[in-house]
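Lab notebook, page 48
Experiment: co-folding of the full assembly
Goal: obtain a model of how the components sit together before planning crosslinking
Operator: M.T.
Materials (sequences as entered):
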Amino acid sequence: MNENLTAMAIVLGIMHSGIRLATPYLYASLGEMFGQRSGVLNLGVEGIMLVGSFFGFYVVFETGNPWLGFAAAAFVGALMGLLMAVVSVTFKAEQGISGIGLSLFGLGVSSLLFKTMLGSVEGVEGFSELKFCFSSIGIDSTFCLSEVPVAGEIVFSHSVMTYIAYALVPIAAYVLGRTTWGLRIKAVGQNPEAADSLGVSVNLVRYITVIVGGLMAGIAGASLSISLLGVFQENLTNGIGFIAVALVYFGGWSPWGVMAGALLFSTVSSMQLWGQVLNLPIPSDVAVMLPYVLTIVALALPIRRAAQPAALTKPFTRGEN
Amino acid sequence: MRRIKFYRLLDGLVPFIAVAAALAVGAIILLLQDTNPLTAYEAMFKGAFTNKNGLADTLVKATPLLLVALGVAIAFRGGVINIGAEGQLIMGALLTTYLGVELGDSLPGPLVILVCLLGGALMGGAWAALPGYLKAKMGVNEILSTIMMNQIAIQIGFFLLRGPMIDPAELAAGTGIPHSARLPNTTDLPRFTDIAGWLGLSKSAEEMGLSGFAAEVYGLLVEPTRLHSGLIIAAILAVLVYIFLWRTTIGYRIRAVGQNQAASRYAGINVSRYIILSMTLGGVFAGLAGSIEILGLHHRMFEPTAVSAGYGFSGIVVALFGFLHPLTIIPSALLFAGLLVGGDKMQRAVQVPQVLITVILGLVVLFVVSADILVRRRATRRVSVDEPSPPGPDPGADTGTGPGAGPGTGTTAEAIS
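Observation: model returned without errors.
Model output:
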C-alpha cells in the first residue's frame, strides 16, 4: 500500500513538473513556428532566450516586479528578432549561419552583462505559484483548487507564466487557421511569389513573424530566470533554444503539435530529474542525454514532413523565379 | 576587366570590414563600461602578438581553430553546415585519451602517437557520419542534429570521466573531479623546444645577436613554451585539403554537390554519398583537433566543454572569415586565436570580461553573412554587364536556397578561388 502511494506521488510529481517545464519550450517554439511558417528559420532562438532571460531577471532583481521583467524580456527579445529579420530578410543571409551568429552574440551579450551588472549568481522571487483559492475572488472559503486531489496538484499550482504559455496554443492556432494574418503568413511561407502577386508584402510579413518570434523567445528566456528557476547564470538556457527550434519540426508546424512535442520533452526531462531524486541506478549523465537523443529520433521520424513550408530558409526577391 | 578586378578586391575586403565593424561595436560596449577602447584593444594586440609567450599562446590556440575550420570548410563546400565540431572534437579527445592511457606504455612513442591521432580523427568522423547519414537519407536538418550531438558528446564525456576513465589517483583521494589520468610521456607531441634541440639550436637570442620582435620569434623556437608540433600538422593538412578539394576528383565532386545538387545528380554523382563524405571529413578534422589538444597541450582529458573551449563555434567564424578556403583559413585562424588570447590579456589589463570576444565573434558572423548579398548582387550584375552573351549560372541563385544547397557564403569564396 505504502509503495503504491509513493509510486502515485512520483507519477504526480513527474506530471506536475512536466507541465511546468514545458513553459519555455512553448513560448519559444510557438514564436519560432510563426517565423518558420512564413519561411524564416530563426536559429538564433538560443541567443534571444539568453538575452531575454538576463534582462527579465535583472529588472525583477532591481524592481521586484515580475511583470516589469516579463515586459523587459519581451522588448529585448523583439529587438533581437528585429536584428535577425534585418539580417535574414533584408540582407538575405544564409539562415543557418546567421542564427548561429545571433546565438553567439546573445551568449556573449548576456554573459558580459551578467558579469558587469550582477557579478555573481543571485536569486529573485519572480512569479510565485498560483493556488486558485476561493478567498482571492471574494468567496468566503479557505478552499483552494490546488488542494483538489490529483488534478489540483497537477494542474492548479503553477506560475501565471505557465498558464499564459498554454493559453497561447489555442490563440496561435486561431491566428494561423482563422484570420487573414494567418492566411498571409502561410501564403508567404508556401508560395511567396503568389502571395506577392496578390499584393501581400512578403518581407513585411516575415519581419513581423520574426519579431514576434523574438518577442516570444525573450519571454521564454524570462520564464526560466524569473519563473521556473529564479536565478540567472551564464548560458542558463544550455541548448533549450535549439531544442525549441527542433520542436517546431517535430510538431509538424502546428501549434497543437508543438504543444504535444513540448510536453513530451518536458516530461522526459522531469523523469530524468526525478530519476536523480530517487537515486535510480541510471547515471545522471546518461539520463541528461535523453532529451537530445529524443530530438534526433524525432527529427528522423517521417511524420508530417510534407507540412514543411515550401519556402523555408529561402529569402524572397521579387521577380527572381 | 578592370571593373571585375576592382570588385574582386572589394569582395575580398568584406570580412575585414565585418571584423572592423564588430570591433567598432565592441568599442562602443567598452565605452559604455567606462573603458578606453584604444587601451583595451592595445592590451589585446600586445598580449597576443608582441612577445614570445603571447605568440606561443596564440599559435597554440590557432592549431585547433585551424583544424576545426578546415573541417567546417570542407563540409560547407559540400553543402552541409557542420555545427557539431564541438562534439566531434570532444569525442576525438576522449578516444585519444583512452588509447593513450591504455597503449602509451606498451608501444613505441611515434607509433602510439600515430594510433592516438588516427583514433581521434576516426572517432570525430564517426560522430559526424551519423548526422551526415540522417541528412542524406532522411532529410534531417543537419544543423539541429549536430547541435544535439554536441550535447550528447558532452554528457558521454562527463559519464566516462566520472566513471570508467576517471584518474585512479582521483578515485583514491576521493575527490572525484572528472578528469582522466595523465597520458604516458611517450604520447606527448614534440614541443618546438624539443625540435630545436634535435636541430642543435641551443644559443639564446642574445648570443645570436637578436633583439626586439625577432628575438621574441626566435625565443619561440628555443625557449620552453607551450608551443607544440600540432601546429605543423595543422598547417600541412591545410595545404593537403587545398590539393584535395581543388586537384582531386573526389574534392571536385564534393564542391559540385555543394554548388548544385540537381546538376550533380544529373552528372551521375551519388549526391547522398558525397553529403555523408563531406560531413564525415568535417568530423575527422574536428576529432583530430581534439586529439592534438590532448597529445600536445593538456596530456589528460578533463571537463569536456573546457577541452573543446568553444572551438567548434569559433572555428565556424574562422572558416567564414577565411573565405572557406584552406589556405586563407591559415591567417584567419591566427587572427582569431590572437583575438581569443588577447581577450584574456585585455580582461587582466582593463577588467573587461573576456566574453566580449564572444560578442565580437557573433557580430563577425552576422556581418559576414549579411554582406554576402552585396557580393551576390554584384556577381549577378557582373554577368549581365560584362559578359552579356553567355547567360552563365547566377552564383547567387543556387546558394543559400534551402537545406539542400550550399551556404550563400560560397559566393564570397568564389571571388577568391
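Interpretation: Residues 2-121+145-307 of chain A form a domain with the ABC transporter involved in vitamin B12 uptake, BtuC fold (CATH 1.10.3470).
Next step: discuss with group before ordering constructs.
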